[in-house]
Design brief:
By secondary structure, this protein is mostly beta strands.
Length: 87
């Protein structure tokens, strides 16, 4: 996705059964944490959910273009993906 239009991106996931906890973790190519979000109870029930991410770091900085690694962790069960930031 592109940060130049300010729209960010959406991260969609489906839970087949409820989870007691979950978090979204985004790392840069060096393995450094750039974003962390703890899911709220309404995002942990069965069904399909979407997390809106504005593409900013946990410090509010604009990310540099590149590939970022996305992890959704539900009670230790991890789903992995990649996101490319372009400008």
């Amino acid at each position: 996705f592109s940060l130049t239009n300010g729209s960010g991106t959406k991260i969609r996931y489906t839970l087949l059964s409820p989870s007691s906890s979950g978090k979204l973790i985004i790392l840069d190519s060096s393995g450094d944490l750039v974003y962390l979000y703890n899911l709220v109870s309404s995002e942990l029930i069965s069904g399909t959910h979407t997390i809106d991410w504005n593409g900013l770091s946990i410090f509010g900085n604009t990310l540099t273009p590149g590939v970022y690694f996305v992890f959704l962790d539900f009670n230790g069960q991890v789903i992995r993906s990649k996101i490319a930031v372009i400008n």
